[in-house]
Write a structure and sequence with these properties.
Helix content is about 0%, strand content about 45%. By secondary structure, it is an all-beta fold.
Length: about 140
């Protein structure tokens, strides 16, 4: 399933990786030189162990590899977060190319329905209202 992260009404996407999913794929259109901040959090109500990773891939490539160990024609991530079991994932990077980037949330743990939120800010502003975002680091 591919979802767009360009919703005009919200900068937070709420989703669930189901017990049959290995990953979720999202697309977001970014401009070169923009700084993008992604924050992946499992809902606090979910009290079981979880191990999610987040990988961002550049536009224009056909094949991707989260390990970077697949054939040379597969692109490795330009940003990633794999902080370990029961951890929030954060990735911040500056785009080198304009285009649609792939954001992949991967489940590395036992399969279960894991609810999560994915927050996105571009140049320090939310996708929703173009106002500066306030929060913790």
């Amino acid at each position: 399933m591919i979802s767009q992260l360009t919703s005009p009404s919200n900068s937070t996407t709420h989703d669930t990786i189901s017990d049959t999913d290995i990953f979720r794929l999202y697309e977001i259109d970014l401009q070169a030189t923009e700084t993008a901040d992604f924050r992946l959090r499992v809902y606090t109500e979910y009290n079981y162990d979880h191990d999610l990773g987040m990988y961002i891939f550049p536009p224009g490539d056909r094949y991707y590899s989260i390990s970077g160990e697949l054939p040379e024609y597969a692109s490795s991530p330009i940003a990633m977060a794999r902080a370990g079991v029961n951890s929030e994932q954060n990735a911040v990077f500056t785009c080198s190319r304009t285009g649609v980037h792939a954001v992949v949330v991967v489940n590395f743990a036992a399969r279960d329905d894991i609810p999560f939120s994915l927050d996105v800010t571009i140049q320090g502003k939310s996708l929703a209202d173009d106002l500066p975002v306030k929060g913790d680091l």
